[in-house]
Amino acid sequence: MSNNIITGIDIGTGSVKVVSARKNPETLNFEVLAKVQKPILGVRKGVVSSVEDVASAIKECIKEIEVQINEKVDGVYANANGSHISCSSSQGLVSVSRADQKISSEDIDRVIQAAKAFPVSKNKEIIDVYPKEFIIDGERGIKDPLDMQGVRFEVEVLVVEGFSQYIKNTSQAVLDSELQLYDVVINPLASASSVVSSKDKERGVAIIDIGASTTSLAVFEEGNLLHLAVFPIGSNNITNDIAIGLKTDIDTAEEIKLNFGSCSAQKGDKKIEKVTSKELEEVVSFSRGNLRKIIEARVSEVFDLIKADLEKISKNQKLPSGIILTGGGSELPGISELAKKEFKLPCRIGHPLNFTPEIVDPKFSVACGLVVVGSDLDNSEESSMFSGIGNKIKRFFKMFIP
Ligand SMILES: Nc1ncnc2c1ncn2[C@@H]1O[C@H](COP(=O)(O)OP(=O)(O)OP(=O)(O)O)[C@@H](O)[C@H]1O
Ligand SMILES: [Mg+2]
After folding, report:
1. How many A from CA of 386 to the centre of ligand 1?
2. Residues 149 and 186 in one domain
3. Of all protein residues, whose CA lies closest to atom 7 belonging to ligand 1?
4. In terms of domains, do 356 and 285 share one?
5. Which CATH number is 69's domain given?
6. Of 108, 111, 136, 211, most Cβ neighbours within 10 A?
7. Residue 322, pLDDT score
8. Is the CB of 212 within 6 Å of ligand 1?
9. pLDDT at residue 19, as a whole number
10. Do 207 and 310 reside in the same domain of the chain?
11. From atom 21 of ligand 1, which residue's Cα is the shortest distance away?
12. DSSP summary character for residue 17
């Protein structure tokens, strides 16, 4: 891409967010050149349901980005989201091919291909494969097997799958916006790329991105991706609960959430607030305490789903770097205190790291993460070196480039 500018497009259910940035080779920070957020139609629970509507929102954003950076955007990195995205574990086994028994990069490719050779359910595709550990002649826990010696060569991987049609819709929306699509990255991994430091990934951490209608989870330990999931519940569900609980319309409920919402007990809990609903032409009265209870119930439900997932992988209460919350839903006051209580772990709000000027808005974590992934891919293509665990193995979406 010209001038090393990388553009990430986050197609969210509530809005599309676009960031264009360039990595400074000296400071290694990403210099933000343009940043745009616009409302979007045609996305349902994180999935592109109307290619036409999404393409038109992308076009509008890119027009604005091009004015800000004063040049044309040729291609972008985009996200894919939705609860159809799932992960499972798999293993691969091959014999080391070279006579001197040194493991070559071809052996690494072969063993990973072997781990991918299992039946995928109808309409689903493997999006990516992440090695957790390599095993040489029974010796486990090897991260970089290149040039090591052995005969029996195995790998344990995490396979990420998704519905092909949903992912194709995302690709089509980008292509219909007259842009090249360099790659598609799923939401939990995009957020993690900009928000989670390598140190936290090494120690053990869970990142939770609370969007408008989805919540995604990615868990890392020893630098490896251990687990990911996308749940079809987000911050808009809180708005819906407020509308039902306070018997008002959605716009008023959203206004109440943004201005008075909280999910931890505060001093003024008994205070009665009044908001006028333009749609219903009436005044809604509520106590802050009652509003908090409505919000807390929904946020706890989301945290319970995540806790159950952490339990399944035996990581509940066992992640030393704790929980990082991001996405628009993480802006709710008191949410990290509630998370701390529920998960019994340290918890904080995460926003993109190493972007200048600093982006403190957690809604931009996915768009910034796409820029980070794009920059890593550009570099790995330039050096064309296999860098072991953590590297994406299959640049699946290249096939969509026109
Ligand atoms: N200050 C705030 N307090 C509470 N909630 C907020 C705040 N700001 C934004 N939100 C909520 O965050 C949500 C939007 O977040 P975000 O932009 O991350 O979602 P999205 O990416 O469009 O959706 P998704 O990832 O689910 O497809 C909305 O539900 C909005 O009400
Ligand atoms: Mg989102």
Report:
1. 37
2. no
3. 331
4. no
5. 3.30.420.40
6. 211
7. 98
8. yes
9. 98
10. yes
11. 12
12. E
Residue 381 — very low, low, confident or very high, per pLDDT cuts 50/70/90? low
pLDDT, tens digit, for every residue of 39-62? 999 999 999 999 999 999 999 999
User: How many Å apart are CA 175 and CA 40, to the nearest integer?
Assistant: 17
Confidence band, pLDDT 50/70/90 cuts, at residue 349: very high
Verify whether ligand 1 is closer than 6 Å to residue 14 (CB atom): yes
Query: Could you report the per-residue pLDDT of 224-252, keeping only the tens digit for each?
Result: 999 999 999 999 999 999 999 999 999 99
Residues 234 and 302 in one domain: yes
Residue of 331, 336, 360, 361 to mutate, ligand 1, most atoms within 8 A of C-beta: 331
Q: Is 131 in the pocket of ligand 1 (CB under 6 A)?
A: no
Residue 188 in contact with ligand 1 by CB distance below 6 A = no
Alpha-carbon torsion, ordered 236, 237, 240, 245, to 10 deg: -140
Q: Which ligand is nearest to the CA of 13?
A: 1
Give the number of domains in the chain. Answer: 3
Query: Helices marked H in 278-387 — which ranges?
Result: 288-312, 335-343, 365-383
Q: What is the dihedral of CA 230, 236, 237, 241, to 10 degrees?
A: 170
According to DSSP, the β-strands at 205-210 and 323-326 are parallel
CATH code at position 143: 3.30.1490.110
